[in-house]
Amino acid sequence: MGKIRAPANVKRVYDRMFICMKCNSKMRTDMLRVKAKKVKCRKCGYKGLRPKKKDRKA
Ligand SMILES: [Zn+2]
Fold this sequence. Notes:
Strand content: 15-25%
Bound molecules: zinc ion
Order of helices and strands: HEEHE
Strand order of the largest sheet: 2-1-3
Number of strands: 3
Largest sheet: 3 strands, antiparallel
Structural class: alpha+beta
Helix content: 10-25%
Mean pLDDT: 83
Low-confidence stretches: none
C-alpha cells in the first residue's frame, strides 16, 4: 500500500481562500493582500475576511 500524498496545489488553494465575516462569501486572494487590507468582499464590500482554515494561523 502506498501513501497518499495531498496534492500541493490543493493545499495552496485552501491557503488562499478567505471568507467574508459579514456575508460568508468565499473568495480567493493572497494572505498578504488581506493583511494589508487591500482586499474587500466582492459581494458586500466588507474588509473583514478570515482564512478558510481556522486552526493554523501562519
Ligand atoms: Zn461580504
